[in-house]
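Milestone 3.1: sequence recovery, worked example.
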C-alpha cells in the first residue's frame, strides 16, 4: 500500500525520450491502469472475499484514489468523500455545487432557473418522443396529410422549446446537459499526496487537504456536449490541468488560472509525459501541449471518439478502428513533427474502455465485449476474442500482477493472461460498476453503483 509521498512519486518512469510521468495519483492511479507489484485477488463475488463494503450516498463512475490509508471517491452529483482503507468508514464528505462557490449565485434565483431549465428539457424530450411516433406512422402512410401536419406542428413546437431552453440556460449557474449514465461525477480526482483536487461535470473544481478542509473552490466553465463531461484532471509540471472547453493550467495552491488554450473537448483523460526536459500533455483529440506554458506542439494526430491515448517509450498510441501510433521527436524544439508508425483495423465498434499496453502488446475491448490484442510495433491484430459479456464495457482494461481484468458495467469480470494467445483463467461477479478497479497490495477497490467495495483473499 502507498505509505508516503516519496513512495508514490516513484511511480514516475524515467524512460528514454518521452516517458509516462505520473506527478499525482488519479485516473487509473498513474494513468496506465497497471499494478505490476500487486498480488491481487483472483476470486470474488458479492458474498465471497469481500473485506468490507460501504454504501455511498449515490452512484458515480469515478475511479477510487488511494493515498496511504485513505480512499477518495465521488458521488452524484458533486460530492467528494474520504474513506478509511482498513475499515471502509467514511471519514468526511463535501459537496461541491454552485451553492458552495462563494458569491457565484443567489440560491433562490439558482433554484428557480434550474427548475425552469429542467422542465423545458422534459418538454423537449416529450416532443421528440411525439415526433418519433409520427415519423414511424409516416413510414406506413407516407402521403397522410394529417400526419404531415402533425409532424410540422411538432417540429415548430420543438424549435420554440429549444430556443426557450437555450435562453433559460444562459446563466452559468444553470446545470449543463448530461447523459443519465454519465452524470456530473465521472471525472476522477487527483492528488499530490498533500491535497486532493476534484472536477465535476457541471464545471466546478475544488481543492481539499487530506483532512477535508476546503482550500479553494471555483467555477471553471460548462461543457458544450449534450452528453456531459468525463475527462479527469491531471497534475503536470507542478500545475493542475483541467480540460473542458479550454485546457487550463491552475495553480494547485490557489486555483488561479496560469494559462489556457482552446482545444477540442474530449471524453478521454489526458496523458502526462516527458519529452527531453519538457513535460507534455497529450489529449484524446491528438493534441500535444507543453505543460510549462500551454504551447500546442501538435494538433489532431488522431482523434479518439471515446477513449484515452497511451504514451510510452516516446510513442503515442490511439486505439480504435482506424487508430494510429506516432513516434514523437526527442525534444519539444521546432519543428515538432511526430512520425506516423502505423494505423490499425481493430473491431469496428465503440471503445469506451481505456486500453493497457504491456510487453509490446496493446489490450483493448469494444463496448460489446470483443477483446483484442494488438502488436504495438506494427498495429497488427494478434487475436480477437468475443467475451460474451453483457454490454456495456465501460470499465478500463486493467492489469494487476500478471493478469488482465476486463469488466462489464453489469459487474462481470473476465481474467485473461497477457500474451499472444487468448487464455482465460476465470470469471468474477460483483454488483454493477462503471469505474475502473484499483489494486493495492493484495486488495482490490471497486466503486460500484451502490458503494465502495474492498476485495481480497485471506
Amino acid at each position: 500500500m502507498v505509505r508516503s509521498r516519496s513512495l508514490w512519486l516513484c511511480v514516475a518512469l524515467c524512460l528514454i525520450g518521452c516517458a509516462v510521468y505520473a506527478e499525482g495519483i488519479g485516473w487509473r492511479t498513474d494513468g496506465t491502469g497497471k499494478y505490476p507489484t500487486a498480488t491481487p485477488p483472483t476470486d470474488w463475488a458479492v458474498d465471497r472475499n469481500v473485506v468490507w463494503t460501504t454504501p455511498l450516498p449515490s452512484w458515480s463512475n469515478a475511479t477510487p484514489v488511494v493515498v496511504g490509508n485513505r480512499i477518495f471517491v465521488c458521488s452524484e452529483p458533486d460530492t467528494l468523500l474520504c474513506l478509511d482503507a482498513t475499515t471502509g468508514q467514511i471519514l468526511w464528505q463535501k459537496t461541491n455545487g454552485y451553492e458552495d462557490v462563494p458569491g457565484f449565485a443567489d440560491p433562490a434565483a439558482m433554484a428557480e432557473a434550474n427548475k425552469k431549465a429542467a422542465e423545458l428539457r422534459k418538454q423537449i424530450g416529450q416532443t421528440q418522443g411525439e415526433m418519433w411516433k409520427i415519423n414511424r406512422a409516416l413510414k406506413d402512410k407516407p402521403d397522410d396529410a394529417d400526419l404531415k401536419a402533425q409532424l410540422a406542428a411538432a417540429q415548430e413546437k420543438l424549435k420554440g422549446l429549444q430556443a426557450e431552453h437555450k435562453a433559460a440556460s444562459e446563466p452559468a449557474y444553470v446545470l449543463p446537459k448530461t447523459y443519465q449514465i454519465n452524470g456530473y461525477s465521472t471525472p476522477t480526482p487527483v492528488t499530490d499526496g498533500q491535497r486532493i483536487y476534484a472536477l465535476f461535470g457541471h464545471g466546478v473544481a475544488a481543492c481539499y487537504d487530506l483532512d477535508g478542509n476546503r482550500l479553494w473552490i471555483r467555477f471553471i466553465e460548462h461543457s458544450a456536449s449534450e452528453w456531459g463531461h468525463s475527462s479527469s484532471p491531471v497534475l503536470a509540471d507542478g500545475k493542475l490541468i483541467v480540460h473542458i472547453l479550454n485546457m487550463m493550467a491552475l495553480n494547485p495552491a490557489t486555483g488561479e488560472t496560469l494559462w489556457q488554450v482552446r482545444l477540442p473537448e474530449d471524453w478521454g483523460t489526458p496523458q502526462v509525459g516527458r519529452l527531453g526536459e519538457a513535460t507534455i500533455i497529450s489529449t484524446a483529440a491528438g493534441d500535444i501541449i507543453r505543460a510549462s506554458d500551454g504551447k500546442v506542439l501538435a494538433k489532431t494526430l488522431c482523434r479518439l471518439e471515446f477513449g484515452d491515448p497511451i504514451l510510452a517509450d516516446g510513442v503515442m498510441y490511439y486505439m480504435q478502428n482506424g487508430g494510429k501510433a506516432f513516434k514523437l521527436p526527442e525534444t519539444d524544439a521546432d519543428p515538432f513533427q511526430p512520425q506516423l508508425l502505423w494505423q490499425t483495423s481493430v473491431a469496428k465498434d465503440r471503445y469506451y474502455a481505456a486500453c493497457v499496453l504491456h510487453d509490446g502488446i496493446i489490450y483493448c475491448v469494444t463496448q460489446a465485449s470483443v477483446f483484442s490484442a494488438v502488436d504495438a510495433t506494427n498495429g497488427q491484430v494478434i487475436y480477437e476474442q468475443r467475451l460474451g459479456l453483457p454490454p456495456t464495457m465501460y470499465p478500463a482494461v486493467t492489469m494487476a500482477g500478471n493478469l488482465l481484468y476486463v469488466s462489464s458495467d453489469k459487474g462481470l469480470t473476465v481474467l485473461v493472461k497477457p500474451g499472444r494467445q487468448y487464455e482465460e483463467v476465470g470469471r468474477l461477479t460483483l454488483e454493477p460498476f462503471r469505474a475502473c478497479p484499483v489494486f493495492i497490495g493484495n486488495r482490490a477497490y471497486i466503486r460500484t453503483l451502490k458503494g465502495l467495495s474492498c476485495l481480497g483473499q485471506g
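Residues 5-99+179-456 form a domain with the Methylamine Dehydrogenase; Chain H fold (CATH 2.130.10.10). The chain has two domains: 5-99+179-456, 107-168.
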